[in-house]
Amino acid sequence: MTLSADAATEVVPRSVDATGVLATLAAPPPGVVEFNSGYLHASLQPERAMAAALARAGRRPGAWDRPPIEGLPELREWFARGMGGAITAAEVLITSGGQSALTTTLRALAPPGAPVLLESPTYPGLLAIARAAGLRPVPVPVDTDGVRPELLEAAFRATGARVFVCQPLFQNPTGAVLSAERRPEVLRIAREAGAFVVEDDFVRRLVHEDAGPLPTPLTADDRDGVVVHVCSLTKATSPSFRVSALAARGPVLERLRAIQVVDHFFVPRPLQEAALELVGSPAWPRHLRTVAAELRDRRDALAAALRLRLPELALPHVPVGGYHLWLRLPDGTDELGLAAAALRAGVAVAPGRPYFAAEPPAAHLRLSFAALAGAGEIAEGVRRLRAACDEVLG
Amino acid sequence: MTLSADAATEVVPRSVDATGVLATLAAPPPGVVEFNSGYLHASLQPERAMAAALARAGRRPGAWDRPPIEGLPELREWFARGMGGAITAAEVLITSGGQSALTTTLRALAPPGAPVLLESPTYPGLLAIARAAGLRPVPVPVDTDGVRPELLEAAFRATGARVFVCQPLFQNPTGAVLSAERRPEVLRIAREAGAFVVEDDFVRRLVHEDAGPLPTPLTADDRDGVVVHVCSLTKATSPSFRVSALAARGPVLERLRAIQVVDHFFVPRPLQEAALELVGSPAWPRHLRTVAAELRDRRDALAAALRLRLPELALPHVPVGGYHLWLRLPDGTDELGLAAAALRAGVAVAPGRPYFAAEPPAAHLRLSFAALAGAGEIAEGVRRLRAACDEVLG
Fold this sequence. Notes:
The structure is a homodimer.
Chain A lengths: L5 H6 L9 H5 L7 E2 L12 H13 L13 H9 L10 E4 L2 H12 L5 E6 L3 H9 L3 E8 L2 E2 L1 H11 L3 E4 L15 H11 L3 E5 L26 E6 L11 E4 L4 H13 L4 H11 L3 H27 L14 E5 L6 H10 L2 E2 L1 E2 L12 E5 L6 H19 L1
Parallel strand pairs in A: 1-11, 3-4, 3-6, 6-7, 7-8
Antiparallel strand pairs in A: 2-9, 4-5, 8-9, 10-13, 12-13
Helix pairs in contact in A: 3-10, 5-6, 5-9, 7-8, 11-13, 12-13
């Protein structure tokens, strides 16, 4: 017999994977068009530059030594520069990937059982993190200008929450950018609620070629130490390049540091050294330019194919950054049925349900275009999705 | 102004670093003899072999790709073989260091607020992990044969705890090895309590040359899926070599996996590839033999110097594995005052207080010998400690 583990079954929140994060991490069957991956296609990853960076990191003396707990000073400095100038290197902690940084942050900011305000929709990984931390996700609707301030204010009032997590730039899944008008509102509302805004700045380095100037991170406007900023190199590099940063001002920084140290100690030095080698190499800006052009092309190819072949799927917003489109399905669509039919037809898509903490207002699909080889694969994926829609939508 | 963060000050357990873990992670002033480090001295780390392993890992195709969530199959297989045969590769998860593996384990096994049984004394990092997880540490005394079964049984009965964490081999700090008589008792008691035994097998690869055959891991005797086993490569290599394994049987494995994925996703592939390269190289068994001989020499040098120069410090047990000695101070010694005087005299030692979840029965010091260059530095450290004792003990 094995311990049937009443202990275990009762102690881990049953909902920890209600969002299906584990399922999406499983490799799809070969030949399937992957519209549901959040990572760059192998051809878009800076593979040679990363291999060179690791080799150079390995030759540095003391490559396996203990780095300073907070991270290598030069790497903290590099991340701080990318945050718009309001943050100094001393306010940055190096962490091991965005997922892990968000886990640390929520554990540091909210006790088990507390409410946490999240954008709605938001990405399933964040819902899983919140639930695994024993928190109660409270959804606050976003529109194409980001979170709606009046609803945010009401949610703080109704719940007494002390934390709001948001993605102000190319939000996942909607692609929304928090508007210039709303930015100060969000900061004011959080400050008045005595709460923190956790800014998950996850795709600033996956901007498209035609984007024009980007808004600075919200943390650059923050005069009061309200914002805890999270960003990562993973999305712009490769799944195993798990190097990220957490930044905060004031007393909360020490609490983030304490939780980070207890949970992880520090990020292994070879990864930090490799990150410094990579972002300091001439290949890095070239890589970012290539990705910006390739993502724009893939985005346009996918949007055009969808409009041509799947006009019944509404595409209200085409973002100029990030790696996905968010489609609204006709009322009454069985989105799980559609996703299953799509997989049978050879295309993996993400149904909208796991992006909502509560009952969704409508059926959706999220289609990612980062993991695809190019226009040919995109066309084939849309053709297969058309077949699935014919079967399910009738 | 920065947010003075009532939110933060109330939500992180104030006691999270009551054990002083953060302080011990700070680098000591230069010239100080480090009797308080848990890592091997640079000269004992397999630096060239690790650099070569990293370089080879970087040349493997797809070195930065996503590994399987549970870890590379060959590495899971390698860890499984080291666990005494009862565990298969399918029951092993690769994790990023022992600290992180224990955090995942406690979060998976016990809800916030629950009691968790810990050996007393135990290492401060474990107390910090338990407190950061919101758990209530319940100390169960150990003697030189490991945890005392009758007290373990009583503690389960009194608290209803569902988890007991122990280090059956060369326990930190006492060096105790759980005796052959007590091993089945501990398993029976846990099984009858419907509880898990978390086996932190942290120094199996830091055994001394004169140790003779070791007892197998407790997990090898476990017929009921009671044991969750944790082991790591870090202690036998270098601080940044954060590659470890978690093993469990039955339904709890899936819960460990779910928490591990939400908190960390996976261990970066280059570290896993480097681990495989390292343990598969001819340098690896040579390294372990060298460390076994060097640790025995350092242990003997330290024990001899202490007996000669500090006879008033009781040394009840000299272990044949691990990297530290546990000394009892004369009754009434101000151990914090002694540690402070020692640091002024140029030697860093760990006072005993942080090793106890509750009031200590006596004053202690822990002296580690792994981080020292050799016999000369050990002699100098003991000379300085003698000076501090003269000042404090009078």
